[in-house]
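Hi Y.,

Following your request, here is the sequence exactly as I used it, all 181 residues.
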Amino acid sequence: MIESAEAALKTAKRLLLEMGDVPSTGGSSMTFSEPASTEEGKVIEGVFNGERMIAPDGESYPVPANYASKSKLVAGDHLKLTILKDGRFVYKQIGPVPRKTIIGTLVHEDSQYKILGNGKSYKVLLASVTYYKAHVGDKVTVIIPDADDSEWATIEAVLPKNMTELNVNDDEPEEEEKLDF
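Below is the corresponding structure, written out as C-alpha cells. Let me know if you'd prefer a different format.
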C-alpha cells in the first residue's frame, strides 16, 4: 500500500510540475488557480491520481470512489473541490485528460482488482467493480490516459459473455471480414 501511495504521489508531483501549461481535450491550456474562499466555502483545484485529488501544494483530498467510478474519472483529470461551510466536499471535473479505451481482463491479485490489457496491469477501484457487477475473468473496456503513464484505469463497461464468441481480443484489433457481393 505504501509503494502504491508513493507511486501515486510521484505521478501527481510530475503532473503538478507540468501544470503550468496542461493541455485539455479541447486543445486549450489549463492553469490552476490558488485556493480561494467563496460564499459557498473553500475552492481548491487539483489532479486526480486514480484514488485521490492532489492539490498544487501536495495536499491530498479523498475523492469518493463511487463518484470517481460513475463519473469515469481518469488519472490526470483536473478537478475542482469546494469544501462547503458545513464540511461537505463537492467535486467537479474541470478538465479531462486526453484518454483512450482498451479491452482487458479483470483479475484479483495482492488484495486489489486489476485489469490486464495492453501488455500491462492497471489497478481499478473496487467501487467500479461492484458498480458494473464485474467478476474475475470478465472482459471489460477501460479508459486510461492517452499517454498510458498511469497505473490506474477506469472501467467503462463489462463486455457481454457472448463477445468472447465474437473473437474479441485485447491485444490485437479484429480484422474486418471481406464480403463479396
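Helices lie at 2-17, 65-70, 126-131.

Thanks again,
Q.
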